[in-house]
Amino acid sequence: MPGDNLIYSDLNSDGNSERLSQGKGIPYYYISVYNSDNQIFDQWNLPGIVDPILSGMFTGDYDNDSIEEIYIFTREEDSLFLNVNELLQPSGTKLERQYITKIGVVNGEVTSFLEPIGFLMRTVTGIKKYIFQLQRHLQNNQERYFTTICLTQG
């Protein structure tokens, strides 16, 4: 569909990339996952607003089970939420509307953006962290803050 955000990722480690399509339906934003034959696996309806200026969707294997999770941030007014779904494994990791922080919004426009930095594994403790960096501008648009956000697995 026009305006959709597309990425390709091998979500189930079978050597074939799945197509992830993110778009806006009525009334929800969604992510649909398709196999290489263009058959849909599943669709995930997202709570809140998906703002491409703020962040796109991305994938990673946070829990080391060879099935990648889908990560996407949503917002409601000036609140930022993390959403995670291991869509190809129904009993897998799922997190919706996990509040993260306040973001910059000036005159209704988002003045923040997120950048995934990646996974960091601490081998001594076995704790794995997924790290994001949030850059935000405050209302006077002159101050800039960087916040590092870590999602930690114990």
Description:
The chain has 154 residues and is mainly beta. It is 0% helix and 57% strand. The chain contains no helices and 13 strands. The strands form four sheets. A four-stranded antiparallel beta sheet has the order 1-2-3-4, with no helix packed on it. Strands 5-6-7-8 form a four-stranded antiparallel beta sheet, with no helix packed on it. The chain has a three-stranded antiparallel beta sheet with strand order 11-12-13, with no helix packed on it. The radius of gyration is 16 Å and the shape is globular. The N and C termini lie far apart (39 Å).
Give the tags:
single chain; 154 residues; mainly beta; 13 strands; globular
Summary, kept brief:
With 154 residues, the chain is mainly beta. Helices cover 0% and strands 57% of the residues.
